[in-house]
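Lab channel / #folding
Pinned by the channel admin:
"Please post every new chain as: sequence first, then the structure tokens as a reply. Keep commentary short and put observations after the output so the thread stays searchable."

First post following the new format, from NK:
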Amino acid sequence: MEGDIEMKWLLLLMGLASIGAAAAGFVASIDLLTTEIGMLYATCAVTALFAGLVFLALAALTYRIDALRRTILRQNSHEASRRGPADVDLAPPVEVEPHWAATPPIVAPPLEEAEGEAEAPPQSADPPTLVGRYSAGGASYNIFSDGSIEAQTTEGDFRFASMSEFKAFLAAQRT
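Reply from TO:
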């Protein structure tokens, strides 16, 4: 908690110092405004002014977050004292895996011809779901869970049953 108080004061002091530097830059640029150095002083002063305002906003935000944390801790300790030690839940915390951790990354397929036919994935009763989207060369590609690919190009919309069929189409387009 002491570190938080020091951080608030540090941010406040940095903000005030930046605003002070901005004021000095503005004063220095007044007589020199028609020269390049005067414009440089004025530009630096504006930059320092906005940096100071950002520091002050961060100091205020740090203050508000600390006040919110203290309020929550006070409420939790008040509720714990009302419940008593027998009512305290001693269950271990449950870790929840974020939604993005379970999703495998989408890798763009290489655009070279395959040596042999790939095995077709087993067919299921469920309709295929969209696994990923890919855009290249002005075309959009939708890749589905059954291995099929839909391509929307300027020449029209195409549907391919497999990656091998898609690669054969691309090879034919190149010739």
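NK: Strands lie at 130-136, 139-144, 149-153, 156-160.
TO: also worth noting, The mean pLDDT is 78.
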